[in-house]
Amino acid sequence: MNLKALTSDQLLSETKIIVSEERRITAKLIEHLGEINQRLLFLKLGYSSLFEFVTKELGLSEGAAQRRIQTMRLVTDLPETRQAFEKGSLSLSNAAKLQSYFHAIKKAGKAKTIEEKKAIAKNAENRSQSQCDRMLFELSPELPTPEKTRILSPTVRELKFSVSEELFDKINRLRDLLSHSHPNATLAELMDFLVTGHLTKIEKTKGLPTRKAQTPGQADERPEEDRGESPNQKWTAKVTRKNPNKTADKNTDKVADQKNSESAKNLDETDQINLICTAGKTLPAGIRVSLPVQLKRTVWSKADGKCEYVHQGRRCSSRYQLEIDHTQPLALGGSNESSNLKLLCRRHNGFAAIQALGFAKMSSKMSSMRKRGQ
Ligand SMILES: [Zn+2]
Question: Do 151 and 157 meet the contact criterion of CB atoms below 8 Å apart?
Fold first, then answer.
């Protein structure tokens, strides 16, 4: 099409038609996202969230994905907003702002009723983004401003969030207490110190390799159980310590005795883990038991601290809300041995249960997973 041949009136008229068409197509996309969310299709494909699916599978930018998903949730909750969106009186940005506001106000324990939401959504029509921001601020000035992250360079991000006066005071007190070891620490340096320390502690608890840097040529002085690079040695050592021929442990399981004395050197990692589990007591199948710490650590270590759900060669790898899953559910007689255990994010753990036990039994879990799908 030669645009230069159009009159100005024709150009304006066609532009308006295109804008209207764009809104209609966006509404259609939002409708499709709603159905994908309803079916939990993103979980089946190995994505831990609808947001990850939309950015990675559909290729939308993070901001575009966020606005469309938030609008989808608003339209699901308040179907009348779809019409306002399609006719252009409610913009995509403002629809997303409304949904974020409803979520934040609910989190603050002041959830709005459906009628209140309808009235607020109606009031947001035909407003610019800044007017909508102002309207929502005036409704709930006590709400913290939304957290934001922005990429500044390939290695630097800008984080923006508000903190209470109480937390700000704690930060300053901590900075003063650390002033000898970390003089003039910036907020970013303070955060690095706190996050790294906490991360190292939790990773150690979960059985993941610690982050302590090693100087070349320097001996690793960490305890053996902290090194994590040779799980076979670790397990063998523990089995050896439980060998009744060398210790006075009278409760050692007979199976462990036999395996220990006959073929400890030939055991693979799984067998060795089972030995530890059965050394104190045999873990019964089909019922939920408190898994031994060593076993939990091994499941975490084996999975490298990431979700192990795989679909057609694509692994989820989420680190969010990880749980130990029974491949064959306990409800179907699954065992508590390591061979039946894997690490899954909470959503894929729920999805695995749905696949194993059926949709009907898991309907309440599905509902919460759809809401968490972002
Ligand atoms: Zn997952």
Answer: yes
